[in-house]
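Q: Hi! First time asking for a complex rather than a single chain. Here are the components, and I think there are two in total. Is that enough to go on?
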Amino acid sequence: MTTATALALAAEVRSGRRTARDVVEEALAAVAAGNGELNAFLTVLGDEARAQADAVDAEVAAGRDPGPLAGVPVALKDNLCTRGSLTTCGSKILEGWRPPYDATVVESLRAAGAVAIGKTNMDEFAMGSSTENSAFGPTRNPRHTGKVPGGSSGGSAAAVAAGFTPLGLGSDTGGSIRQPAALCGVVGMKPTYGRISRYGLVAFASSLDQIGPFATTVEDAALLFDVLAGHDPLDSTSLPSIPEPTLASVHDGAEGVRVGLCRDLIDGCAPDVVARVQEAADALAGAGAKVEEISVPEFAYGLSAYYLIAPAEASSNLARYDGVRYGLRVDGEDAAAMNTATRTAGFGPEVKRRVMLGTYALSAGYYDAYYAQAQRVRTLVMRAFDRAYESVDVLLGATAPTTAFDLGAKVDDPMAMYMNDVCTIPSNLSGHPAISVPFGTGEDGLPVGVQVMAPALGEAMLFRLARVVEEHAPQGAGS
Amino acid sequence: MNAEWEMVIGLEVHCELKTATKLFCGCRNSFGDEPNVNICPTCLGLPGSLPVLNEQAVELAMRIGEALHCEIRPSEFARKNYFYPDQAKDYQISQYDKPLNTGGWLELPDGFRVGVTRAHMEEDTGKLTHVGASGRINAALHALVDYNRSGVPLVEIVSEPDIRTVAQARAYASELRGILKATGASDGRMEEGSIRVDANVSVHPAGTSEFGTRCEIKNLNSLRSLGRAIEYEAARQIALLEAGGKVDQETRHWDESAGRTESMRSKEEANDYRYFPEPDLVPLAPDAAWRERVRVGMGPMPSDRRAQLAAALGGAPTDAEADQIRAVVDLGLDGLVTAVAEAGLPASLALARAANEVAAQSEAGLGLSAPTFVALLAMESGGQLSATQSKAVLAALLERGGGDPAAVAKEMGFEALGADTLSAVVDDVIAAHPGEWDRFVEGEDKLMGMFTGEVMKATSGKANGKEVAAELRRRRG
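A: Yes, that's all I need. Here is the structure of the assembled complex.
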């Protein structure tokens, strides 16, 4: 298992002490040895990764700096478009599809010298919290292979937790980076909506989706975030660039920072999870933060609003998988029959459930009661955040209500599965940044994640506080 | 039209905007290319692609709003969801409850104002070609899709149901086409589909105010089919109602060759489009400065140009002149006429030449420059060319795409006839028709035409008609 951080690896490669090719070969060997059991990667980009590593080494040999992620292997969630390479979104309906273009984040990674070594497993179209909704079999949790890794970005979380790669990319629509990060014992972060381009991210729910980093340390997560953040003219919802890197202030500490320990992000959680969050709050207080308890009761409505807005957008975003232009086609006697046959065969049950839900929520006669009402609740949640941030600088809570659960335990109970996202959804509704940091273990010895939330564009503050939490995390399993 | 019934017509006009690139991507907006050459991930709706709004399209849409006296407002894009193979994303990005332009009007040449409900932006679909025995939708074996048109910017202009006659409907469509060309938004080519008209038609007993149930007619590719389709549809509805039946609200397809409308889908079969705000785009709210730049940058509209021509004529135009003015403005030939008027030459003569001879060739893409036209009209009005000669020279100039009118006239043998020659010819003609001449002298004026004709014949059309008439009158005393 690789223990080197991305920062350390990049420093070695940039200085010529180690070749990118060597780093990448080691990662590919780790994947070859361990992926059979975990099923973290759906596609390994061996030849492409080696060629990219050689290009990085050539830069170094020529005396040029290949960039801040020189030679660092990265795992990409399989909903990020990679030119010429399979991009399945964990769905049969996209089996065999090779995008003719790279996502903006993929280009940014390459420009920074990073090497994508494969595409990782995920719940189909990012719909799920356990990676069991993949059409290509579940991913297993590297901390305990009988457990789920969380989801939907379970493959990337597992790849980083297993030491296959020091960095991974996921997408977070309702917690799909933070929850698997918590369950696998790694750092996972969702940026402010619009800070990282969505161009080339296959959409689930466009107004909620945001790409973000997985890493083994907060520093590495900040480093990767800094590489990816910035304005992209190809994404109309992308925000203007902020030149200051977050990495520069990651060690600035918690002195004087007002931390709101949020009851509504703890109360429904398992006692061992609550205990870890309380310890993290105590650690922050010990580091000079002003910790106070705070309640944001509107968070309770987030889950319901989310499960209307996200399926509504998904029902529209997933309409294009109709068998006409790409991916699976099952013939029918006319175009409509072909559409139906293709979608019936190509989508799994959870995708069908959400497309139905979303279609219903947008239908004439139901729109106001469901979709429009959910949007009003979303506004309510945003205002609640604004009110909370009048008295505190960041919020602290749990990431997931429990540690990793058994494979198969919740597959037949969608509501129980949806409850996994209760703590993470508010940040997606508001578009604010949030991060999950490993903090000790539960009674079962599995990792617990502590979540820090910050106001819009508060990434620098978020990483600072996360770093303090990380510093005080109990040593042992999960680290 | 049965006098006991009144038609109520509202028109929906789709106008393809003449932008360099498509509405949400950088692909070329071009008609008639090989299939599927102007495509990219965005206009193909590939997974992960995103739309970025074309500023030039917004600018043209704002010009249309300005020209139609609309309020230009903060607006939003929405998704209109429906499955169809020509729809790359299986939803269309359109404006729904927050359109860019609302509440305007269009004034017909006769002064009648038709309300404009809205003029909103949306993207076009791809183009389906059904391949099979008959080429008809239902009998096709398979279909081919060309996505070159997918994502081409459109503005949909929706009128109020203010139109009451076929003539008004045609005048509205024609005037709107002129406005769309004048704004630079459209090339105005209905036959290429760059302007497409749908008509909502209902009938109700004349003198009552409650509207009947309407039908929407699609596939109207010319002003002629627009008129025919409305006539047919109103007659169909009247016949239904007079027979004690009722009109079902439905969408009907105009079959140009059969000359009738046919049911496409009923209201019950209509799609629920599940509109919701497009999350991939931000709201579009042109600020005051942008609106002002657009307003100031617009050229004169057809109504302004018609007024300018009428003023050049120097008096209220006759009905015939009003028709000529409309034709000349519609074809964009008004510059020729104003140039002649500015040169101090007779505008009415220029208007007639432009509306007839030049207009006839302009359909074929032939034209000539204003200075050439002015030089020709100077020769005709100065008596160096007869009307017949002038028309012949004009035809030659149009054919050649320009030239020197004097040189062309000389080349065609149209030398001005000297006064002595004319006098001699008139002598010969009088000598050859002594009886007719006596009757003419005694006051039988209609013989003027006969004598003029004979002189023209004798000079092979080189004589100037006015001068011949003057000479004949002088001789009569």
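A: The interface with chain A takes residues 41, 44-53, 79, 81, 83-85, 88-91, 143, 145, 272, 274-276, 279-282 of chain B (CB under 8 Å). Let me know if you'd like any chain examined more closely.
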